[in-house]
Amino acid sequence: MAVQYTYISDREAKELICEIGKRVYNKSFVAANDGNISIKVGDHELWTTPTGVSKGFMNPEMMVKMDLSGNVLEGNLKPSSEVKMHLRVYQENPEAKAVVHAHPPVTTSFAIAGISLEKPVSPEAIVLLGKVPVAQYATPGTQEVPDSIAPYCRDYNAVLLANHGALTWGRDITEAYFRMESLEHYALMLMYSDHIMHKSNELSTGQIAELISIREKMGIKTGGIPVPGIDKKIRTAPGLQEEMIESIVQKVTEEVLKNVLK
Ligand SMILES: [Zn+2]
Q1: Which GO terms describe its biological process (predicted)?
Q2: 238 burial class (0-12, 13-18, 19+ CB within 10 angstroms)?
Q3: What is the pLDDT of residues 1-25, one digit of tens each?
Q4: How remote is the CA of residue 53 from the centroid of ligand 1, in Å?
């Protein structure tokens, strides 16, 4: 029988969002008014950050209560247009109870380069984070953004948003926020080792299997298996490029055909 989840109160959720907002801002995971945070307080309700406000300077009265369909239930300010991503995570993955969106500089650089974070080099990253795919680019604020992340919400714990930033989620706000911290830390280590030192020793398949079993004992079933070639769901950088080339070829073919058939 499924265990009933006990949600935190409205007050706790609003205070926690402010606290996490300060951390996200003080760690330079966002600049100015960037980023957004949300916490579910019921099966169909959540509190989220308002638009146009710095995450470092929020108070509980600024928060907005919404339902999973995007209707505002409480609050004087407007929610961010990026809340659509949060709603989509909750719709796709009922286990997710909190979502954090930020633009951490190193992680976002990987997102700009279209490089997914999946190299098995850090035990902590394998256990706490798993593989982090890159979702296709989508214009911020549009419906394309939630559509671009939808394929990853159930099987992973985080996703890179191409040329934009990152999104993490968890069974509570601490897990969602720690995943953002772990993500930036992992991206930084990978940048130093892989892209500056040009040397990163990958963990063996046996070592990875051991870490996966630790992860499962912690009740984490998501994150994919970070052995290159095993988990085909991951959209790797070369795969992303292949996909882009494919779509370009298709567009060119369509144009040529249009001209020929004129
Ligand atoms: Zn953003």
Answers
A1: pentose catabolic process
A2: exposed
A3: 566 789 999 999 999 999 999 999 9
A4: 13
- Ligand 1 centroid to residue 34 C-alpha, Å: 6
Collect contacts of 110-115 with beta carbons under 8 A, ≥24 apart. 110/134, 110/160, 110/187, 110/190, 110/191, 111/160, 111/161, 111/162, 111/163, 111/164, 111/165, 111/166, 112/162, 112/163, 113/237, 114/162, 114/237, 114/240, 114/241, 115/237
Cα(35) to centroid(ligand 1), Å: 5
pLDDT tens per residue, range 39-66: 999 999 999 999 999 999 999 999 999 9
Helix 10-26 / helix 173-190 crossing angle, nearest 10 deg: 20
**Nearest-angstrom CA–CA distance, 45 and 36:** 16
**Active site residue ranges:** 82
The dihedral built from the CA positions of residue 187, 87, 6 and 152, taken in this order, carries a sign that is negative
**Contact in structure between 146 and 136 (CB atoms under 8 Å):** no
**CB-based contact 50:63 (threshold 8 Å):** yes
What confidence score (pLDDT) does residue 230 get? 53
Phi, psi dihedrals of residue 245, rounded to the nearest 5°: -60, -45
Closest CA to 36 of 155, 222, 173, 186: 173
Q: pTM surpassing 0.70? A: yes
